[in-house]
Design brief:
mainly beta, 7-stranded mixed beta sheet, 4-stranded antiparallel beta sheet
């Protein structure tokens, strides 16, 4: 059973930084493609960063150059480093895992989701 538990959300001012963590159950980071998604009120779920099993990364245009996805296998943790945050980054952020060859930024591709962590950026 895949378990994903996010943490690290909070409230920051524009220009600030936050680091989100997602602790995964055993064996997930070694074998699953991983991704971070976000969903703002009244909007659909948007993929922001994805990480293949071979550590290849993808980013949405809206976060490219500001966010970085990585993993710490020893800690079984997926990480999203978010810098230069903007008010439009305000959303619930979710960690997702998919047993596939290549990661995607499409929510429909993922079967396993965490409960989310809220990020609020004020201007």
């Amino acid at each position: 059973q895949v378990q994903l538990v996010e943490s690290g959300g909070g409230s920051v001012q524009a220009g600030g930084s936050l680091t989100l963590s997602c602790v995964a159950s055993d064996g997930i980071l070694d074998n699953y493609c991983m991704a971070w998604f976000r969903q703002a009120p009244g909007k659909g779920r948007e993929g922001v960063a994805a990480l293949d099993v071979d550590d290849s990364t993808q980013y949405s245009d809206s976060v490219k150059g500001r966010f970085a996805i990585s993993k710490d296998n020893a800690k079984k943790t997926l990480i999203l480093q978010m810098n230069n945050l903007k008010p439009e980054d305000t959303a619930m952020y979710y960690c997702a895992a998919d047993l596939t060859d290549r990661a995607s930024l499409e929510a429909a591709e993922y079967d396993n989701w965490g409960q989310g962590t809220q990020v609020t950026v004020s201007s």
